[in-house]
Design a protein that fits this description.
Arc Repressor Mutant, subunit A, mainly alpha, elongated, Tetracycline Repressor, domain 2
């Protein structure tokens, strides 16, 4: 009787692709995804909306078919950049909500400024995209809660509203987008000055 056992057999040509092969394929797909996103950020920063998929693929070092397998169009690629940006802001909001109430609002605002600055040269591409409604609602609710906590902790004047803070965010984003000749950290000074103003703001709503 033969003593052959499957345990003794070495993987042969007839064996199905193993787990290691599938993992290698997934890693390759993920690497290409990151390369395309990184290249898109660079190319959009340099060329704006006129940039084409061919230029992005060349910068990423992949074939154009690789890009189209993941992103059906340039619009789909821009939408993914927006989704990732909102995901970053959601994470920042959650972290700020876990911070002490007197520090959470400023922490979140500084994270917002940093995120805007990282997309400064092509912010106009992202601003024209419709954001996911559920994510937008979560960000608004987080900002309302952070503002309320800051008021209760005495970190901002009692008269400051969420609308006031939202206006500050829009101003910071506009500064980052519209004034490329300013120092890259100009938004930080702008935010610091306005945060001081929120602490001492008189009641101008009556």
């Amino acid at each position: 009787m033969s003593s052959y056992s499957p345990v003794d057999a070495s993987p042969g040509a007839d064996a199905p692709p193993g787990r290691d092969v599938r993992r290698a394929v997934r890693r390759d797909v993920e690497r290409n995804y990151q390369r395309v996103l990184d290249a898109a950020r660079e190319v959009f920063a340099e060329s704006g909306a006129e940039a084409g998929i061919e230029e992005i693929a060349a910068r990423a070092g992949v074939g154009i078919g690789t890009v189209y397998r993941r992103f059906a169009s340039k619009d789909a690629l821009i939408d993914e950049l927006l989704r990732l940006s909102i995901e970053t802001l959601l994470g920042a909001a959650e972290a700020a909500l876990a911070a002490p109430p007197e520090a959470g609002l400023e922490q979140y605002l500084r994270e917002c400024g940093q995120e805007f600055a990282s997309h400064a040269r092509y912010a106009d591409l992202l601003l024209t995209r419709p954001a996911n409604p559920a994510a937008r609602d979560r960000l608004r609710e987080a900002l309302e809660e952070l503002t309320a906590r800051a008021r209760r902790a005495g970190a901002i004047h009692p008269s400051v509203t969420t609308a006031d803070v939202t206006a500050l965010i829009w101003g910071m984003r506009g500064l980052v987008q519209a004034t490329p000749d300013l120092p890259p950290d100009a938004w930080q000074r702008y935010l610091t000055i306005h945060l001081a103003g929120l602490c001492f703001l008189g009641d101008t709503h009556h």
